Amino acid sequence: MREPLSPADARILALESDVVRGHALKLLVLEPGEAVDLAALRASVAERLPAFPRGRQVVVDDDDGPTWVDVGEVEVAEHVRRYAADDPAALRAVVGRLMSEPLDRSRPLWTIDLIGPLDDGREAVAVRLHHALADGLTAVRFLETVVFEPHDAPAHEVGIRDPAARPTRWSEWERMPVTLARELGHPGSHSPFDRPLTARRALAFVDVPLAEARAVGASRSTHATVNDVLLAVIAGALRRRLLHHGHTPRVNAQVPVSLHEEGEDAAASGNRDSFVDVGLHLHEPDDLRRLDLLSAEMRARKKGRDARALDELFQALASAGPLGTLARGLADDPREFALAISNVPGPRVAVAVAGRRVGHVYTSSEPGPRHALRVAAISNDRWLGVGFCVDPAAVPDVDLLADAAHDAWEALRSGST
Questions:
Q1: Which pathway does the protein contribute to (predicted)?
Q2: Which fold has domain 2-147?
Q3: How many CA atoms lie within 13 A of 84 on its CB side?
């Protein structure tokens, strides 16, 4: 079988370079127990992989452009491996190396790596998927299909849109001037993360209790969402770190928005997302007031359906040559957004890998040229796991940024009680 990559997937693949690897990582931290049998995990993955067809395809780039092509037998031992690590610092070092290494284009664009056991009996499973293969929602489908032990809970539907609710294209274009003014009409200051990028990566993680994040949001007069709380945590962390360095610039964040629709096969539909840009209000000293401001911005973007309108615009401009390139360059400028902050709903029930309960789930996505910090979050049944990924040459001390996020969360939690 041969299938051309979608324009969105092909564009993502083309962004890969010597310093941009193009993949994302899901890190599953298993609760203490007997060490996972690598051979048994390989056998399980091999048995279940056919249910996720993209996992058995490679990208062939020929005269017709990049195409998905089925492979014969996947050499699972080349994709499912083990790395040693005995403490959290060693674990972060391993995942930093994995994020800095390109996936082998001659093979399907995924790996699953066991890391550990750590001294406390925990192990981790690092799952890498190229972004051309899967966006955030599709990556969770890969986990459910291939990695997690089977369970009866239905897949999470947050972010999946009903096609019947899609507005007409004319109404989208009628609103376009307002959308462009709202999304791209308020550039920020010079970005503190606009730095040359190398291939090195460093990661840090922080947890936010999911039920408490919901409670903080519900305590606000306008009812903030968990995603609003996440944005407030990251904005609070950036304010604390940038104040430490003596300044608080006006910083915008790009927030990806899923455009997957009800009834579609997320495992085969490729990348279906757009974005909105929001100001992070770093000049506001009060964490709860900043949450209210962010929540109001996000409500306005949702009400205006800005993400879908921008998707329609960039699809229309994709074949417009220099004009399309200019528009995309404007949207990607670091003054339009200094960093991206994504949030994907993960498993909403307790899940296991090889008989071991998954205690925590984290995610990490690639920084990009002139955007040396990337923040990504994923939930499980108990926690919102937040991952910071940086080029350490451009953004040192990523651990301190994660510590500042913890402090920002504590300020939100204590202030709302």
A1: Glycerolipid metabolism; triacylglycerol biosynthesis; Lipid metabolism
A2: Chloramphenicol Acetyltransferase (3.30.559)
A3: 0
pLDDT of residue 23 exceeding 80? yes
Q: What pLDDT was estimated at residue 62?
A: 81
Nearest CA-CA partner of 114 in 74, 151, 77, 150: 77
Helix ranges (H only) for 133-285 are 136-142, 169-174, 176-184, 210-218, 226-244
Measure the CA–CA gap between 233 and 236, rounded to whole angstroms: 5
Give residue 222's identity as a one-letter amino acid code: T
What is the per-residue DSSP string for 272-304? Answer: -EEEEEEE--TT---HHHHHHHHHHHHHHHHHT
pTM of the model: 0.88
Q: How many residues does the chain have?
A: 417
Residue entry with tokens 């690639």: 366
Beta carbons within 8 Å of 301's beta carbon, 6+ residues apart = 182, 183, 276, 278, 307
Fold (CATH) for 163-346+368-415:
Chloramphenicol Acetyltransferase (3.30.559)
pLDDT at residue 233 tops 70: yes
Kindly state the average pLDDT of the residues 306-332: 58
Q: Do domains 2-147 and 163-346+368-415 have the same CATH topology?
A: yes
- Alpha-carbon span 222 to 189, nearest angstrom: 29
Tell me the percentage of the chain whose pLDDT exceeds 90. Answer: 66
Q: What angle do CA 122, 123, 128 make, to 5 degrees?
A: 150
Which of 371, 337, 376 lies closest to 95 in space, CA to CA?
Answer: 376
Domain ranges of the chain: 2-147, 163-346+368-415
CA distance 230 to 242: 18
